[in-house]
Known about the structure:
Layout: E1 2-4, H1 6-19, E2 22-25, E3 29-31, E4 36-39, E5 42-45, E6 55-60, E7 65-68, E8 74-75, E9 77-82, E10 86-88, E11 92-94, E12 97-102, E13 105-106, E14 116-119, E15 123-125, E16 133-134, E17 137-141, E18 145-146, E19 149-150, E20 158-160, E21 167-174, E22 197-200, E23 205-209, E24 217-220, H2 226-229, E25 236-242, E26 247-250, E27 254-258, E28 263-266, E29 275-283, E30 295-297, E31 318-324, E32 330-335, E33 360-369, E34 375-383
Parallel strand pairs: 1-3, 2-5, 4-6, 5-7, 6-9, 7-10, 8-11, 9-12, 10-13, 11-14, 12-15, 13-16, 14-17, 16-19, 30-34
Antiparallel strand pairs: 17-21, 18-20, 20-24, 21-23, 22-29, 24-28, 25-26, 25-29, 27-28, 31-32, 31-33, 33-34
Amino acid sequence: MRILSLISLLILLSLKINAQTAFKNFGNVQMHTDASIGFHTDLINDGQFDNNQGLAGFYSDQNLRTVSGANRPVFNDVEIDAINDLNLETSLGVTNQLQYINGKVLTPRNDVNVSLDFINHDFFAGEDDDRHTDGYASVLGNNEFTFPIGDDDRLRPMITPNQRLETYFNGAYFFENPNTSTTFSNNFTTTEKEVILKNISNYEFWDLDGSSETTVTLTWDSFSDIENISPLLPYLRVVGWSKAENKWINLGGVNIQGDFNEGRITSLTFIPDNYEVITIGSVFSDIELGGSDNYLISPNEDGTNDALVFDGLELYEKNELVVFNRWGNEVFRKKNYENNWSAISNGRATIKESDKLPTGTYFYTLKFGNDKLDRQKKGWVYIGY
């Protein structure tokens, strides 16, 4: 292995620049502590260049700077001062700090395998509408991470929280209508959705990839048209396009902050790899549900809609309530129901009866009568927290 000092690195770089238009690495190069290197030309890495200390900078006053090659280079500290952007044709790794000075980091939006990778990083700084990652960025670690991602001249971060174990997530932001996606092979039709969902954003979506369960915080700005998604912020939700069901699913909404021009919303826990893309949507209010057969309950013990209540049920001597999940599995059954179900399952697959059912749409059948169960009511109930 060759350990290059600052002087030898600069000599090597100078020789490469004079001979050709890119810095090409075919060998095994390592930068040690206090070393620094400035790329005033493109970097092609076909060797090993991933065990580095010191600082690597990418600079250009005019040209698009490009990183390519068979292998991912990984640097300790990185600064980007390329007015006409840094283009990644292969991933670029950062293990400590990154500074956005000028320009964006561009990655191919049709290839999730090429990204700006933050590897157990310390922090980054300088991101804004003109300086961010336009494409995919990834994180490997267990700390809260704000993805410095956007689309063209819009920074639109999303945030994953602290993780119990070291976890990998990859993500990008798309300022485009999910009904007519230009990047993905299929469209995400906003009319295909759970019955509880009222509206889905027609302006933007994010792609978040990862196999570990997590929450995610999405942000909005004045271009997000939040007021037309929901005139009341408490009804906003994070929604995801389910790969299994080919429709939008409610992923919950907590810690909703801001106003119609700027804000953020956090989902409940979900597994990102189960969803093609995610965005912001809204749910119907209990008043808007319409009809006496459909119900909304939020069993969070706040005194409002904590249980499934059928008006007038006390007028009948007998009844039986059965609740099913979306796959038709029975999750609750009760003879002589007393309007007190708060989303606790007693179905065959129940592991712990004190655990409440997850957010989602469930279906019920209620039979009732006096001498016999000769009347029946069917519909759906949405559980949200």
